[in-house]
Write a structure and sequence with these properties.
The chain has three helices and five strands, in the order H-H-H-E-E-E-E-E. By secondary structure, it is an alpha+beta fold. It has two domains: 73 residues, no CATH class; 67 residues, Nucleic acid-binding proteins (OB fold (Dihydrolipoamide Acetyltransferase, E2P), Beta Barrel), CATH 2.40.50.140. Strands 1-2-3-5-4 form a five-stranded mixed β-barrel. Helix 1 packs antiparallel against helix 2 and helix 2 runs antiparallel to helix 3. The protein starts with a helix and ends in a 10-residue tail after the last strand. 24% of the residues are buried.
Length: 157
């Protein structure tokens, strides 16, 4: 192949890796795209295929090793608590009696109604309607609640 053919080939490879990076956003294909650009530069300077491959691999691997961890840390968003996370610790009132075995239960927290269950690892407890509870966790759309001591129901066998 002549110089122009290698140059075009490396540009196509660089574009392919760039498209792959856009599709995956994994910060890996980007480096091989840059490596292909380096190989295209070597091809334009009339470097042989061995030098082109060396530039491709060296630039891709060196850039990957030196900059990916830094970029990944800077571009990843920190865990931000959501509204659901803020539910933990809030109190509510049972509107439909909570019974894990019967798969029933609902609580009202402010103006919102949530499906409610007692924690799986806790004692099997039936919580009657009207009891006051505290949300200890949220799993999907189900609030895990514990009765407040003043309205605690008796454990069931």
């Amino acid at each position: 192949m002549d110089i122009d053919s290698y140059l075009i080939l490396w540009i196509i490879i660089a574009a392919g890796f760039a498209v792959l990076e856009i599709a995956t956003m994994a910060f890996v294909a980007l480096y091989f795209s840059l490596g292909a650009v380096a190989a295209a530069i070597v091809a334009a300077l009339d470097g042989g295929l061995v030098w082109q491959l060396t530039a491709f691999i060296a630039a891709g691997v060196v850039l990957l090793a030196l900059t990916r961890p830094v970029l990944k840390r800077r571009l990843e968003s920190p865990d931000v608590p959501t509204n659901v996370d803020r539910m933990v610790g809030k109190g509510g009132i049972v509107t439909i009696g909570i019974d894990n075995d019967a798969n029933t239960g609902q609580v009202r927290v402010g103006t919102e109604y949530w499906t409610a269950r007692t924690p799986e690892d806790g004692p099997a407890t039936v919580v009657p309607a009207g009891a006051r509870v505290t949300i200890v966790s949220v799993e999907g759309v189900t609030a895990r609640v514990l009765p407040r001591p003043e309205t605690a129901a008796a454990p069931t066998a």
